[in-house]
Design brief:
single chain; 72 residues; mainly alpha; 5 helices
């Protein structure tokens, strides 16, 4: 159960930091993360990603979203 809590906190942290990074409302960021698979990506790769810096994570999320938009 602790691992699930850690992953949930990590995804929440990323949503909050991305909100600050983009200046978008938190709900809009959360909706995008879940709709575009960003939340799943963060959860599935928690072991590696949670060790990275905030700046690196924001760049990684930007790139992931950009790739998602380019494949549509």
């Amino acid at each position: 159960m602790k691992e699930i809590d850690n992953i949930s906190y990590f995804v929440s942290f990323c949503i909050e930091q991305y909100k600050i990074h983009t200046g978008e409302p938190g709900q809009a960021v959360a909706e995008r993360f879940f709709a575009e698979g960003v939340a799943d990506y963060l959860a599935n790769n928690y072991e590696v990603l949670h060790t990275q810096s905030r700046q690196w994570l924001m760049e990684e999320i930007d790139e992931l979203i950009k790739q998602k938009h380019n494949t549509k």
